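ok new one. same drill as before - C-alpha cells go in, u give me an amino acid for every spot. 123 of them this time. try not to just spam alanines like last time pls lmao
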C-alpha cells in the first residue's frame, strides 16, 4: 500500500507531461537544468529493482517519449539519465522515479565523467 504522503502517487492530471499505461512523466519541481523531467511508475514501489519487467520496459519507453518533448521545447546538447535506488544513493522520495536531465553546452566547466561526478573518487 502506498504511503498517504507520497508526492508521486495520485498525480494531478495537469502535471502530467506524458504517460503510458504504467508510467507518467512530470517536470521536476527542483530541476537541475531547464527541461528536467521525472518518469514515474504509477504503482508505488521503492526503487527500480522492485518494478516488474513490464514496468521497467514502460519506464524506458516513456524516457524516449520524454526526450522528444524536451527536444522540441529546449534543444539540449545532451542528457543525463539517472535513477537513485536507496537512501545511500541519494534517493529522498521512496517511490521509484527516473531523472531525465537535459544538458547544455557550457552548463558546467568540465562535463567529463557525467554522473560519476556525484561520487568522490576513492582508492
Amino acid at each position: 500500500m502506498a504511503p498517504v504522503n507520497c508526492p508521486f502517487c495520485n498525480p494531478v492530471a495537469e502535471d502530467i507531461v506524458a504517460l503510458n499505461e504504467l508510467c507518467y512523466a512530470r517536470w521536476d519541481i527542483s530541476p537541475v537544468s531547464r527541461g528536467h523531467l521525472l518518469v514515474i511508475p504509477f504503482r508505488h514501489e521503492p526503487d527500480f529493482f522492485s518494478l516488474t519487467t513490464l514496468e521497467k520496459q514502460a519506464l524506458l519507453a516513456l524516457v524516449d517519449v520524454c526526450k522528444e518533448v524536451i527536444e522540441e521545447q529546449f534543444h539540449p546538447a545532451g542528457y543525463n539519465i539517472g535513477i537513485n535506488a536507496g537512501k545511500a544513493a541519494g534517493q529522498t522520495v521512496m517511490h521509484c522515479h527516473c531523472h531525465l536531465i537535459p544538458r547544455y553546452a557550457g552548463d558546467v566547466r568540465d562535463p567529463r565523467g557525467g554522473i560519476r561526478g556525484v561520487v568522490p573518487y576513492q582508492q
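The first strand starts at residue 18 and ends at 19. and btw The CA atoms of residues 39 and 108 lie 24 Å apart.
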